[in-house]
Amino acid sequence: PQSLDELDVGQDWVAPLRIYIAACKQSGDVLPHLLLVGPLGVGKTTVAYVIANEMGANLYSAAGLAAQKASDFVGILTNLDRGDVLLIDELHKMPYEVLEHLLLAMRDFRVDFVVDKGPYAKTISLPLRPFTVIAEEKTTRHLEPKFLAAFHRTIEIRWTAEQLQQMLAFRASKDKLNAESEAFHIIAEATGAI
User: Fold this and answer.
1) Can you tell me the distance from the alpha carbon of 163 to that of 177, in angstroms, rounded to the nearest whole number?
2) I want to staple 35 with a disulfide (CB 3.0 to 4.6 A). Which of 68, 103, 154, 155 is the partner?
3) What φ, ψ does residue 110 adopt, rounded to 5°?
């Protein structure tokens, strides 16, 4: 799927998200941070790409496990343009210190880093262009309330077999593919994302 139209198969989060995106685009605002929650393989990354596409934004991806120091994110954050989307998988796997720095960047659109050591140490604050973080988690259990509060919306993603079949049929029709409805049923059941 590349658009919300392709995902709109009766999920209660699609219509509000569509309105939310339209309002941000109309006002010229950056989409606030979003948390996508759902089991492995449910399509959280696909939904993130659809959201970025709907916003007309570039999407950059990072894994929580890969960021072991706060400085690991400075380069990524300082290279984001206004409205870009930073997709972070498994946010809870980041060390606490990195999460604290990311939280500051998400809240205030700046990064602080310390230069030098001892009595000569000083903190330099670097402004960032406003951006959107879309984080992916299997559950919210592992995130502290202050990190959960950094996300404007938490979207729980789950599909029924019927909804997956509808999406497959929509895409096949759009791509002018001829397929039996039984094929959509088999594919939907095989995804394991239901």
Assistant:
1) 19
2) 154
3) -155, 160
Q: Provide, for the chain, the percentages of residues in helix, strand and coil under a 3-state DSSP scheme, each rounded to the nearest 5.
A: 45, 20, 35
CA nearest to 148, candidates 6, 16, 33: 33
Q: Which two tokens stand for residue 33?
A: 């941070």
pLDDT digits (tens, 9 = 90+) for 124-174: 899 999 999 999 999 999 888 999 999 999 999 887 777 777 777 777 777
Place of tokens 């720095």: 101
User: What count of other Cβ atoms lies within 10 Å of the Cβ of residue 134?
Assistant: 25
Indicate the DSSP class of residue 31: P
Q: Which two tokens stand for residue 93?
A: 């796997």
Q: What is the DSSP code (8-state) at residue 156? A: E
Joined together, the tokens standing for residue 158 give 């789950």
**Residues 98 and 90 sit within 8 Å (Cβ to Cβ):** no
Measured CA to CA, the distance from residue 90 to residue 75 in angstroms comes to: 20
Q: Of the candidates 182, 158, 184, which has an alpha carbon nearest to the alpha carbon of residue 169? A: 184
